[in-house]
Specification:
Blueprint (H helix, E strand, L loop, with lengths): L7 H43 L4 H20 L10 E4 L2 E6 L6 H9 L7 H10 L2 E3 L2
Antiparallel strand pairs: 1-2, 1-3
Length: 135
């Protein structure tokens, strides 16, 4: 459809129709998803009974696996260690957590008169210049 020749009212009407269609499609999608879930649940019930088990025997086993998987996702990385993040107050995009010093940090340290190779200078620079943010 050629939109360049439409008036403002016609374009707004087209947008309203599209929005209504979107709402109807979202409702239809929800209905289809619920139907699909019901079909899957029925298939699972059929499999369970086909193998001679009761739903109540199998369902706790399925839920237990799911809970463990969720717990694994919530577990913090690096063995639960949380490291302090250091942010450059002049540029919030410059962040240092730990490990190899980024180029921006080495440059700032040298500009401030610190030696990036010295652990004492690195610690002093982090304390005096960077903003510490808890992870």
């Amino acid at each position: 459809m050629e939109y360049a020749n439409l008036s403002v009212d016609e374009i707004q009407q087209q947008l309203a129709e599209i929005e209504n269609s979107k709402v109807e499609l979202m409702r239809a999608l929800d209905v289809r998803r619920q139907e699909a879930k019901s079909e899957i649940a029925q298939q699972i019930r059929g499999l369970i009974s086909q193998y001679g088990y009761e739903l109540e025997e199998i369902l706790p086993l399925v839920e237990a696996k799911r809970r463990r998987a969720v717990a694994a996702v919530r577990r913090p990385s690096a063995g639960g260690r949380q490291y302090t993040r250091y942010v450059d107050p002049a540029n919030a995009d410059n962040v240092y957590v730990r490990g190899v010093l980024p180029g921006w940090m080495k440059q700032k340290m040298q500009e401030q008169g610190y030696d990036p190779a010295s652990k004492t200078d690195r610690e002093a620079f982090k304390t005096n210049y960077l903003q510490a943010v808890d992870a």
